[in-house]
Amino acid sequence: MQLGMVGLGRMGGNLVRRLMRAGHECVVFDADAGVVDKLAGEGAVPAADLDALVARLQAPRAVWVMLPHGRITEETIDALAQRLSPGDVVIDGGNTHFHDDVRRAAALREQGLEYLDIGTSGGVWGLERGYCLMIGGEAAVVQRLAPIFETLAPGVGDIERTPARTGSVETRSAERGWLHCGPAGAGHFVKMIHNGIEYGMMQAMAEGFDIMRSASKPQVPAERRYELPLADIAELWRRGSVVSSWLLDLAADALAENESLSNFSGVVQDSGEGRWTVETAIEEAVPAEVLTAALYTRFRSRQDHTYAEKMLSALRFKFGGHVEIKK
Amino acid sequence: MQLGMVGLGRMGGNLVRRLMRAGHECVVFDADAGVVDKLAGEGAVPAADLDALVARLQAPRAVWVMLPHGRITEETIDALAQRLSPGDVVIDGGNTHFHDDVRRAAALREQGLEYLDIGTSGGVWGLERGYCLMIGGEAAVVQRLAPIFETLAPGVGDIERTPARTGSVETRSAERGWLHCGPAGAGHFVKMIHNGIEYGMMQAMAEGFDIMRSASKPQVPAERRYELPLADIAELWRRGSVVSSWLLDLAADALAENESLSNFSGVVQDSGEGRWTVETAIEEAVPAEVLTAALYTRFRSRQDHTYAEKMLSALRFKFGGHVEIKK
Amino acid sequence: MQLGMVGLGRMGGNLVRRLMRAGHECVVFDADAGVVDKLAGEGAVPAADLDALVARLQAPRAVWVMLPHGRITEETIDALAQRLSPGDVVIDGGNTHFHDDVRRAAALREQGLEYLDIGTSGGVWGLERGYCLMIGGEAAVVQRLAPIFETLAPGVGDIERTPARTGSVETRSAERGWLHCGPAGAGHFVKMIHNGIEYGMMQAMAEGFDIMRSASKPQVPAERRYELPLADIAELWRRGSVVSSWLLDLAADALAENESLSNFSGVVQDSGEGRWTVETAIEEAVPAEVLTAALYTRFRSRQDHTYAEKMLSALRFKFGGHVEIKK
Amino acid sequence: MQLGMVGLGRMGGNLVRRLMRAGHECVVFDADAGVVDKLAGEGAVPAADLDALVARLQAPRAVWVMLPHGRITEETIDALAQRLSPGDVVIDGGNTHFHDDVRRAAALREQGLEYLDIGTSGGVWGLERGYCLMIGGEAAVVQRLAPIFETLAPGVGDIERTPARTGSVETRSAERGWLHCGPAGAGHFVKMIHNGIEYGMMQAMAEGFDIMRSASKPQVPAERRYELPLADIAELWRRGSVVSSWLLDLAADALAENESLSNFSGVVQDSGEGRWTVETAIEEAVPAEVLTAALYTRFRSRQDHTYAEKMLSALRFKFGGHVEIKK
């Protein structure tokens, strides 16, 4: 099948590579001509600009935009919409807010264009492992592009089947690693929640290892002060424990490299989905204690001291004469 | 090798079965004679009481106690201590607080007895998958009982090796599913943290699915109200996503059976380790926001309404004349 | 001074009464003719509709809208805008989101109209105690209406002066209970934060009393199980303690009436500002752990059981065979 | 009345001064002879050591120990117990854990000695405002020392009476600022909760001001970016708002001195009661989200970066190739 790809960064480039390996034809464009050339050298059809990309694709076209969320994605989709024809499909595979998908899908539909929002999980591992695809949009459009999704997704693989599942795996694409989640926005909604859960699971693991490492602190009474072998513990839990997970596999790897993690400072960014998850929980009046706490630890990690902490110090001084003891 | 087992409930019985399959001899006792008979029928050596159990084992003996934590475990270990001889080993494989291990190990050492505390993860799946064993105590004693641990543990299995790991898997038992974590209490400490992390990961997942399910609530504006296919989403994430985990596998199974989860009321118990994890974090002055929040949601789940909530209602009425709108 | 008031509910009606007591002329309108009549009986100038209200006011007019936030406020302001003349002022004294103020102020300015957003705290007590006013908008407009604000605000009263304050209280209106906080939206922003803090303080107090009341639970060891005199404790803390506060005064009153609070079920509403506070914190990347936790306890109070809790039960059953123990 | 005071720091010294002003006789001892001399110069009876102090008091004696909680208090009470006679009373006015009170009261009772645990709130302001006293122990002993408590407590003062209260203020000491809360430990229990609530209220206020201050951050869209007058806002809320409180009075003072709070670094200690409050909540299975979050922000404030944060950075690098962007 033929697909246009706009944005050839770490994600976009590897999506193209995985598609080409399976024989799909990819027409590619990026603002950086160097990466276009590189992929052309690997078999992709290069396009010098959006006009060239659209011209090179046969109608009904499908163009996957894989750019950082925000203005650049918005502008690119607008530019594409001016060049595409009724029946063509625009795919936003980035981390767009589902509110924007809803708005955009309605606007494009007025021009006769189709829109799919696809949450794409897989990171630097996706080229080999496959990408987990969460798709929002019209069912017929999703169906039309199924060959693309089958290639990008991990497939059934050697993962043991869920016991309560019945019927052929051919009938439900979820077992092959891609899913039509619902109408416009549903794909990015599910991806957003995925990332929210990811934040929470990461933080749960991180706190647990922090408590284990802090078991060696001098303030702990000597008879129950432990120097725990953290790398081995992470490794151990990979087998037969309730917390077995891909994140644990990665923790085991990071700890095997450097148990002190001293190669990291602990300044932790957040990519947006964690915030949107919390905002959505609030709109729905769902208490999301853990996902929110996980987000806040990241905010806190990026400041030396909060103004809130200074106010605590000020109040303690005012009511009790407590003077700060510096670290 | 020979092992005594006291307590033949779901965990103790299956530990014995897994050992016997590998040719170990198990001498077994339980207050319920029926379960002793049952295991005897499967090849175990039955003992009518602790005296008989001790008499049937050859010195140096090893007796594994697998009982609910608390008084019953404490009394059983005391009773065993009176019957055992210097050089014998008592193993507490239950969910004992590591403070109790520290105290007990010191007391038993005065009698010349050895003590191992073993955190045992695996639940109803351990018989087939193997048990992840976290062990505290003297290194020499752990070494002596290594054949038992090799049998109970899952082994290397088909789990991909952690990339940063080097050397033979024979040299580090963690890769085979059991680990000597440190001196007395270290085994149960690590198991405690394991369960704390488990609480946090479960809650992260639970909140995420709650937000997805609540996306269909009537208060959400119609254009972004979704009926998301939760069972399929859980299934999807099992492949290629960052949240892949055994807990997700189980969620996928539960949702495939009944997506509404209406077979559960949501009254959630906690087994102690979550509380101890938080108490330990506080002793160490480690902020454990997520693990604590996960614990508190369980406390809350067991009450119709808290007194705190009534006080909020009372205050709102007092300052604003707000009258409660009943659910 | 002359003021139009639209919306004569609990808040609007008492604002009018407090103004009239000081000799201001109030022209009043409400969709409910009964409340218009009632206030007319107390000295207000009744208006049958917005046209009449506008006609009765002398330019430059000032019309205070005191309605529930959302559509009704929006529509009323639109309707007023069509009737007012350049130089007139519209005041939104309700609990509007500051984003809406920013948008509205800009739209009205295009018509030559002025806009003030006023966060109004005081509840059922404001008529006697005065209203704490947080005002956003143009400085000149605020200045023009100062006589209104001086009347509505509590004034200096018998509250001890803040030691670090210098100069005459005439120079800073904050000491008299009203404040120009900044440009459009700033008034409702400050009121929003006020309510967010209120949520957090209420929850802190509520949790503390819950822990005290739960000290009598049977699971607490007998030697440290207490039946604490909660009403007297609240009363006690009103004098000389760090937690002295108006909320504590109200708690003392509620507990003196009924220490068990059994007249309340504990279903707790939230009025919007708590949510907006958290959303604003997220936009600013400020960790707001306590304000958010306080909001979530209200969400939780309104459900029998969350879907998240059911998922915890389901997972516990799946990995450990744990069956729910009903309450 | 006569009272012995051991420990003449900020709290102990001022308790003595307030008692002497009302004509009570105070026999005083401190390890620092200088402070003994100083108080002797103000009218106290100096004692060179505990023997002298006990000898100078008439039976039945009452000795108030006002020392930092922990070993020094424990040893001092042991030393006093060896010197006192049946019927004498030992008072621990410090911040002792109520578990220790329960144990101590039982031990002293075996020697015929009485024990009161008194939580004392008032800080640097108590000398003038009076101390809020929360008392645990035998009712008869509390009654015997009532004249001391009446003097130390703030008294009815000019605080408005709680509307639901009836009867003479003479009948309930809570309205005069001291209270017999229950048997041994109850006084320190109530003080512990008081401080727990204090942490929560402080954090609520601190977060609110942080969000207001952060409204001027460059990442906030310009049209709703505010430079809010924080000192004036705190002042404003002191009149007629729901968050009026002594903590707000102090915040207003601190902000009036230096709105940026740049004289504080934000390293915030915790004095123990916050931790004990959370541990008690956990023992009682009471969800204490806000009080716990308030405690954790203090833990976090004392670290440059947590190990947990480094693990988040490590995991993000492993699954997504994300490299930390330094602050």
TrEMBL record, chains A, B, C, D:
Q: Which domain of life is it from?
A: Bacteria
Key words, A-Z = Gluconate utilization, Oxidoreductase
Q: Which SUPFAM superfamilies match?
A: 6-phosphogluconate dehydrogenase C-terminal domain-like (SSF48179), NAD(P)-binding Rossmann-fold domains (SSF51735)
Which Gene3D superfamilies does the entry mention? Answer: N-(1-d-carboxylethyl)-l-norvaline Dehydrogenase, domain 2 (1.10.1040.10), NAD(P)-binding Rossmann-like Domain (3.40.50.720)
Segment forming the signal sequence: none
Domain 6-phosphogluconate dehydrogenase C-terminal, residue spans: 187-306
Q: In which pathway does it act?
A: Carbohydrate degradation; pentose phosphate pathway
Which GO molecular function, any one, fits this protein according to its record? phosphogluconate dehydrogenase (decarboxylating) activity
Entries under InterPro entries matching the protein: 6-PGluconate_DH-like_C_sf, 6DGDH_YqeC, 6PGD_dom2, 6PGDH_C, 6PGDH_NADP-bd, NAD(P)-bd_dom_sf, Pgluconate_DH
UniProt record, GO biological process? D-gluconate metabolic process; pentose-phosphate shunt
Q: Name one Pfam family in it.
A: 6PGD
- Please report which protein family the annotation says this sequence is part of: Belongs to the 6-phosphogluconate dehydrogenase family.
> Which named protein is this?
Decarboxylating 6-phosphogluconate dehydrogenase
**Gene label:** gnd
